[in-house]
Amino acid sequence: MKGLLIKDFMLMKNMKNSMLMIMVIAVGMAGYLKDLTFIMVYLAFLGTTYTSTTISYDEFDNGYSFMFSLPVTRKGYVLEKYAFGLILSGGGWLIGAILATIMGRIRNVGSVTDSVMAALIIMPIPIILLAIMLPFHLKYGGEKGRIVMICVVGGLMLAGVLGTKLAERLHINFDVIMENLSELNAGAVMAGAMGIGMVLLVISCNISIAIMKKKEY
Hints:
By secondary structure, the chain is mainly alpha-helical. It is built from ten helices and no strands. The longest helix has about 35 residues, at about 75-105. The protein is globular, with a radius of gyration of 19 Å. The two termini are about 20 Å apart.
């Protein structure tokens, strides 16, 4: 796994210009956005996007055939992608949290405590994104995987809209539900979200391993 991680980080080194541009954009957004939590989500999401980019590089020009002729197992390859994705998305989340906290104090739009609590609540998001994204990209490849992901996200958004309409017909008051959730202990909510995220990640990893073992190169 160490060799695969080094390979992926060297690929990231070749994309340093685009990463620098992303950081400039993030700083610029932090300078005028009212809700600074978006910066954390934005950078964490880009971490998962760069992970899928390395999959595209790996499959290019029969790259898998060459890679698996080396002492690299398919299970090890999948585990490395999940580890790499967690490092990148977690790093993006951490940078976003630090940037949001600093800019929040400079602009006086929130306390450090609020920024830290928001960061902890957002923490499970990159884990869930990885759990959803990686099986699709490993199954359909980098380019097709993006198309499938767009369809899935679109389907989830449509389901959300339909669910909202259904809730209105059933006279379900979401404001009351959100008020009840806000009264819960923030630590318990975060721990529950992290637990769900980790369970999804383990399930996703096993699905990805099964996908890679069935593929022929």
